[in-house]
């Protein structure tokens, strides 16, 4: 028997033989298996673990898995790379008898698995090497264990590509197998020990001519900083070349030494993990042991890196690949592979977000802009949704407030920001149409006023409740119009944030105050002495704002980093499309998508009342606590403070998306017209429905949104906040003693009384993490000198003046 179903009983793995093709197909084709596979392919790891597991390499006469050493008549062959699998599958299916093919399937994520007849007298690994050479493909040498299991997919023709009935033949002579197992166990150590590790991408077919060279090649994966495993590669580029480029860009070409190898190895692993598939063994194999580093200590650095929060590929690793792209301009395959990698990374958030959040209106918006703009689109439409659902108030941390949101979409010119403009305008179409009517009425008043300005009686200026307000306006006019919206949300959108920076240049503090008070929903008052001047008194300022612009314009809009303005803005980044190919069929807003968005937008104002979402609240609290623990490890006070408002913003955004889910459910079940009637007649219907949307699948989106928000806050403002908080203007003194406030003070305390720049850089990386740049250290030292707490010596060292 060569195929077994592996299951857990009483905490132990147990193997049950699958004795027929029919039984095998039935196991693979259950409704539960199909549902779990769909979720697994959407990125749900829990669903992947729920897939049935099969073993093809061992013989389990008593059903006991642990300690089994009896090989079956077959062996499994794992191909993780999608391109490699498709190439190998084509060859195998053309002549299955030649390779002894018994089963061929696509895996749950990418790549696939093959099962073949084992040549007697050879270990599983030796058989795998034989097939790898025949197919000229890469193989996973970590998949040679007898008890190796495979997460199984479904039995449809798209997943189960080949199945031979010989897989179920019971032609075992157990005595012969036991004798063979003893013989194999005695000679298995003849292969190098490294071959029995999970050394992915070992490539014997290309780099090895014979068995002797195979052993020498595998033995190259040692902890010697001078010996690299050149067979392991990413996108055709050896990892050794990638790592050398890393040190060239970020350590002046020097490899780590004893004094900094822990920090620098951790930093390298944090970045390298994204192109090593977050695989511990792969990272261990490709990262050398620098300057006498023990493998145990190196693995601690790798484990710490793997436990760090998963985000998009860090900018510095993207820069390394971009530099390698330039170095390999003559190699079209490498250039195209790196460009494709950039595209896949742009869709990071689309892949991370659960399918449950892609409801009517939301899904249409994302698809109209393109999956690479997922987070920019969500960050742009949520303030519009919150403004439309102006009657909804959400309880967050025991405080009830409206869905007040301010967002900024940052991206270089030509990065796709313009795709978002028509989407936001579609969400606010009804309000824009009303504003056009109000503007026409105001123009009529202006004409009458001009015609009668010399008459005794003049027409009274109308108070028009315009909710679509341009930002290209004066403080007084904008404040007056915000007062006229009759307790509802006003909404402003600008595709060019420089409108704000230029128009409000002399009144940026007023803009900052108004934004802060609108986020909090607090009162806003503006008094003027002149009779003709505008006096404004608003009980609750409700004003949602979306700005799009370059990062440079962002710094002109947000110029103060300690007054709370920055922490109230939800920031999203457009992807780096510098070297991306032009899309043959670029995404655009279709008539159907427009109609679906308008339907949801029309229903949102019908929802009125206060709502508490306990499961969403609990999700937010869990995220805040995880961030607290993470920031405590590195004494990261800046991120620790950012997490509070990010939590609130993310909960408000999630509520906006959940309101869309309610609208989508009603439209799908009853139709648009009846959904409107139901929301009008049954005032609390939406409350009952939104509570039911708090499913674990949908709430998984919270972590993705919150992580994105805090990541972008740190990307744009960490260094500026750090410098602002450590400046003399921000520091306060009590009785002449300097008050210690931030991480720069932690760095100061760790340094000796006399230190050099390199020591300051090392301690900064240790405290702030791998993203700490040399420029930030230079600025820190400059501030210390200006504050009078260090002096610079003739040898360019620094000496503490006071501790």
Short description:
The protein is of the alpha+beta class and 803 residues long. A hairpin with a 2-residue loop joins strand 13 and strand 14 (399-402).
Characterise this structure.
The chain is α+β, with helices and mostly antiparallel strands and 803 residues long. The protein has 33 helices and 26 strands. The strands form 9 sheets. A 4-stranded antiparallel β-sheet has the order 2-1-3-8, with no helix packed on it. The chain has a 4-stranded antiparallel β-sheet with strand order 4-6-5-9. Helix 11 (261-272) packs across helix 13, helix 14 packs antiparallel against helix 15 (332-346) and helix 31 (743-750) crosses helix 32 (757-768). 41% of the residues are buried.
Keywords:
803 residues, alpha+beta, four-stranded antiparallel β-sheet, 49% helix
Tally of separate helices:
33
How is the biggest beta sheet arranged? 4 strands, antiparallel
Query: What's the overall average pLDDT, rounded?
Result: 82
**Shape, principal axes of CA atoms:** globular
Instruction: Tell me which oligomeric state these chains represent.
Output: single chain
Low-pLDDT residue intervals, each spanning 5 or more residues: 186-230, 731-740
- CA radius of gyration is 31 Å
Given the helix and strand composition, which structural class is it?
alpha+beta
Order of the strands making up the biggest sheet: 2-1-3-8
Would you report the number of β strands?
26
Question: Percent helix among the residues?
Answer: 40-55%
Rounded to the nearest angstrom, the distance between the terminal CA atoms is 74 Å
In what range is the share of β-strand residues?
Answer: 5-15%
């Amino acid at each position: 028997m060569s195929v077994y179903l592996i299951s857990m009983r009483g905490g132990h793995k147990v193997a049950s033989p699958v004795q027929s093709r029919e039984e095998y197909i039935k196991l693979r084709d259950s409704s539960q298996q199909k549902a779990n596979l769909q979720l697994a392919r959407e990125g749900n790891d829990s669903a992947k673990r729920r897939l049935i597991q099969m073993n093809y390499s061992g013989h389990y006469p008593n059903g006991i898995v642990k300690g089994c050493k009896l090989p079956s008549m077959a062996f499994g062959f794992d191909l993780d790379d999608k391109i490699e699998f498709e190439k190998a599958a084509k060859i195998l299916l053309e002549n299955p008898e030649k390779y002894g093919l018994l089963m061929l399937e696509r895996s749950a994520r990418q790549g696939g698995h093959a099962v073949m007849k084992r040549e007697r007298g050879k270990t599983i690994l030796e058989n795998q090497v034989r097939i790898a050479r025949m197919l000229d493909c890469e193989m996973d040498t970590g998949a040679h264990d007898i008890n190796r299991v495979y997460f199984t997919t479904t039995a449809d023709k798209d997943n189960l590509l080949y199945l031979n009935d010989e897989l179920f033949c019971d032609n075992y002579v157990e005595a012969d197998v036991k004798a063979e197992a003893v013989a194999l166990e005695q000679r298995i150590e003849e292969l190098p020990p490294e071959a029995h590790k999970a050394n992915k991408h070992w490539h014997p077919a290309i780099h090895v001519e014979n068995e002797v060279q195979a052993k020498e090649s595998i033995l190259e994966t040692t902890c010697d900083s001078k010996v690299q495993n050149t067979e392991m590669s990413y996108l055709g580029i050896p990892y050794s070349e990638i790592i050398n480029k890393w040190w060239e860009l970020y350590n002046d070409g020097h490899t780590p030494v004893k004094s900094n190898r822990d920090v620098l190895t951790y930093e390298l692993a944090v970045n390298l993990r994204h192109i090593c598939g977050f695989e511990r063994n792969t990272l261990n194999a490709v990262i050398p042991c620098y300057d006498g580093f023990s493998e145990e200590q190196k693995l601690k650095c790798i484990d710490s890196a793997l436990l760090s929060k998963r985000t998009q590929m860090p900018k510095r690793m993207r820069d390394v690949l971009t530099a390698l792209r330039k170095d390999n301009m003559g190699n079209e395959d490498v250039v195209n592979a790196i460009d494709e990698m950039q595209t896949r990374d742009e869709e990071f958030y689309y892949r991370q977000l659960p399918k449950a959040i892609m409801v009517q209106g939301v899904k249409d918006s994302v698809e109209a802009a393109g999956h690479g703009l997922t987070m920019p689109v969500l960050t742009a439409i949520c303030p519009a949704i919150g403004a439309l659902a102006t009657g909804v108030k959400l309880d967050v941390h025991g405080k009830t407030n409206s869905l007040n949101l301010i967002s900024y979409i940052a991206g270089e010119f030509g990065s796709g920001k313009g795709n978002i403009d028509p989407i936001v305008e579609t969400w606010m179409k009804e309000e824009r149409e009303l504003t056009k009517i109000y503007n026409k009425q105001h123009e009529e008043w202006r004409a009458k006023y001009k015609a009668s300005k010399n008459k005794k009686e003049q027409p009274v200026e109308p108070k028009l409740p315009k909710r679509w307000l341009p930002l290209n306006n004066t403080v007084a006019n904008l404040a007056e119009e915000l007062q006229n919206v009759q307790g509802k949300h006003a909404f402003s959108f600008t595709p060019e944030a420089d409108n704000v920076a230029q128009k409000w240049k002399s009144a940026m503090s007023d803009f900052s105050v108004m934004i802060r008070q609108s986020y909090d929903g607090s009162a806003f008052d503006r008094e003027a002495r002149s009779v003709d001047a505008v006096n404004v008194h608003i009980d609750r300022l409700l004003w949602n704002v979306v700005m799009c612009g370059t990062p440079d314009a962002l710094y002109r809009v947000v110029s103060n980093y300690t007054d709370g303005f920055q922490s109230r803005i939800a920031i999203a980044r457009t992807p780096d499309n510098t070297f991306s190919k032009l899309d043959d069929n670029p995404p655009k807003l279709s008539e159907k998508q427009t109609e679906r968005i308008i339907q949801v937008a029309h229903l949102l104002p019908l929802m009125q009342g206060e709502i508490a979402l306990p499961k969403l609240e609990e999700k937010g609290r869990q995220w805040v606590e995880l961030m607290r623990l993470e920031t405590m490890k590195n004494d990261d006070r800046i991120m620790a403070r950012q997490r509070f408002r990010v939590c609130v913003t993310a909960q408000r955004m999630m509520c906006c998306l959940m309101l869309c889910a309610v609208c989508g459910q009603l439209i799908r079940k009853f139709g648009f017209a009846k959904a409107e009637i139901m929301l009008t007649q049954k005032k609390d219907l939406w409350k009952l429905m939104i509570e039911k949307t708090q499913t674990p699948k949908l709430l998984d989106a919270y972590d993705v949104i919150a992580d994105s928000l805090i990541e972008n806050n740190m990307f744009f403002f960490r260094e500026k906040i750090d410098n602002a908080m450590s400046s003399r203007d921000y520091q306060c003194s009590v009785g002449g003693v300097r008050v210690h406030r931030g991480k720069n003070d932690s760095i100061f305390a760790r340094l000796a009384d006399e230190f050099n720049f390199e020591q300051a850089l090392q301690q900064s990386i240790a405290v702030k993490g791998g993203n700490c740049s040399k420029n930030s250290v230079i600025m820190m030292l400059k501030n210390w000198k200006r504050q009078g707490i260090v002096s610079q010596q003739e040898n360019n060292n620094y000496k503490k003046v006071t501790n």
